[in-house]
Amino acid sequence: MKYIELTFIPGAGGNFLSRALSLNNHVYAFIKDKELIQTDIVQKLRTVQYTNDIKNWLKFENELTQVTESFTVEDLERNISNNSVLINMCHSDDESRMWPGCDDEVYRFKIIADSNNAMQWLQTNHIKNQLKKEAFVIKQMEKYSTFQKSIQNDKTYHEVSLNNIIDNVDTYISEIDKICDLVGIPKSDRQYNAIKTLYSNWKEASTSFHKNRKKR
Fold first, then answer.
1. 150 CB contacts (<8 Å, ≥6 apart)?
2. Beta strand ranges found along 8-128 (DSSP E)
3. Where do the H-state alpha helices sit in 39-110?
4. What is the C-alpha separation between 84 and 213, in angstroms, rounded?
5. pTM above 0.85, yes or no
C-alpha cells in the first residue's frame, strides 16, 4: 500500500486538497459517520463536496474523519486493494498517525505559501475570518514561519504550491497531477470532472461563507 503524508499549517488548504485527491478509485482520505469505505468517485464526491450554507468552516470540515483514524490496518486490508493510496493529513506541530508496514511506500508533501497572494490569503481571507482573534493569527503565522524553516532543506518532502491551489482550477489540477505522477496514481476523466465540480462548489461556498461573516 502507499501513503501520502500531507503536512500544512491550519488554513493552508490541506483539507481541500485531500478531498480532491480522494476523488480517485485508488485513493482514500475520508469517511462520514463511520460509514463503509467508499470506492466510487460519485459517492466520494457526495461525501466531500461543499455546501453554500456553511456557518462554521472548521465544524464543517470536522464532519468527516480521516480513514487513517477510523480503521485498523486489518480493516483496510479487507476492504481495499493492495495498490491503494491512503492520505494522512497533519499540521506542522502534529505527529503523523500513519502506520505503514515495511513493504509500504510513504510520500511526504508540504503545502507552502509561495507568493504574497498566498500569504495574504492564508493570513486574512482564511485564518483570520475563521478564528477572528488577531493574537491567534499572529501565533499561527509565527508557527508557519518556524515550520517552513525547519523543513526548508528536508529533501524527503515534496512541495505543493498554495498559490496554485487557490489561483484557479487549472493550476489546482496541475498540483494534483504532480502528486499523482510522483505517487504513481492512475488518472481518469471521471476524476478530473469530479475535481472540477469540487473546485466550483468550494469557490461558491467560500464566497457565500465570507459574505455571511461580513453581515454579522
1. 92
2. 27-28, 30-32, 64-66, 85-90, 105-112
3. 41-48, 57-61, 67-70, 73-79
4. 40
5. yes
HSE (CB half, 13 Å, CA atoms) of 21? 33
Virtual torsion, Cα 124, 150, 68, 165, nearest 10 deg: 40
pLDDT tens-digit profile of 26-66? 999 988 866 667 888 999 999 999 988 888 888 888 889 88
SS3 9: coil
Q: Give me the domains of the chain, ranges plus CATH numbers.
A: 2-206 (3.40.50)
Give dist(CA 165, CA 13) in Å, integer: 7
Q: Which three cell numbers stand for residue 30?
A: 475520508
Instruction: For 66, list phi and psi in degrees, rounded to 5.
Output: -75, 140
Integer CA distances (angstroms), 112 to 56, 109, 140, 162, in order: 25, 10, 14, 6
Q: C-alpha grid cell for residue 34?
A: 463511520
The rounded mean pLDDT for the chain is: 83
Q: Is 129 strand, coil or helix?
A: helix
Q: CA-to-CA distance for 155 and 106, rounded, in angstroms? A: 14
**How far is 25 from 15, CA to CA, in rounded Å?**
19
pLDDT at 129 over 80: no
Cα distances (angstroms) measured from residue 108 to each of 53, 124, 173: 34, 27, 19
Helix axes 169-183, 189-215, angle to 10 degrees: 130
